[in-house]
Amino acid sequence: MSRLELEGMLHRLRAERFELTTRADAKIKGIKALLNMSAITPVDEIDIEGVHALAAELLAVKQQMLENLGKAKKIEKEING
Prior knowledge:
Layout: H1 3-36, H2 48-80
């Protein structure tokens, strides 16, 4: 594969990583918002299921991020020699 093709792939991975970071940030903010309610809401009324769902989605985003980083490292290694 040519250097130009590899650099294009790396650029796409960086764009995907930015999107994944944005998604992760949204999940984290959602979790924080739900848990902040615990200061003024009885425990039995806290949306723990919502926290769990967001945490599961965050875990999936983290896995995608790790895969993205692994691919990027391989491409960078190939570009640099």
